[in-house]
Amino acid sequence: MTKTKKLDSKLEGEGNYSAAKVYDDATRDFIAKGKVSAAAAEAKRAVDSSEGPELARAEAKGKAHAAPENPKKSKP
Q1: What is the number of alpha carbons within 13 Å of residue 1 lying toward its C-beta?
Q2: Is there a contact between 55 and 46 (Cβ–Cβ < 8 Å)?
Q3: How far apart are CA 26 and CA 15, in angstroms?
């Protein structure tokens, strides 16, 4: 979301399409600016550091709230 742009607050049914568009636009911008490799390298550094166990606990906590994985769905 841009600093000056506000999301439309009206009910959008099954999904918040304006928020999804803002997210998609920001993701495309992040990729287009070539920031993926640097972010991946920083994430690897964090996981491989003393921060790793804390990150693993946070990941497990987040996954505990997620729906179970579909065994029929292939992973990339």
Answers
A1: 10
A2: yes
A3: 18
Residue 43: strand, helix, or coil: helix
CA 41/CA 47 separation, integer angstroms: 10
Quick one: tokens of 50?
């003393």
| Domain layout of the chain by residue ranges | 34-65
Residue 15 per-residue DSSP state = S
Q: pTM for the full model?
A: 0.59
Band (pLDDT 50/70/90 cuts) for residue 46 is very high
| Cβ density class 45-72: b for 16+ within 10 Å, e for less | eeeeeeeeeeeeeeeeeeeeeeeeeeee
Alpha-carbon distance 1 to 18, whole Å?
10
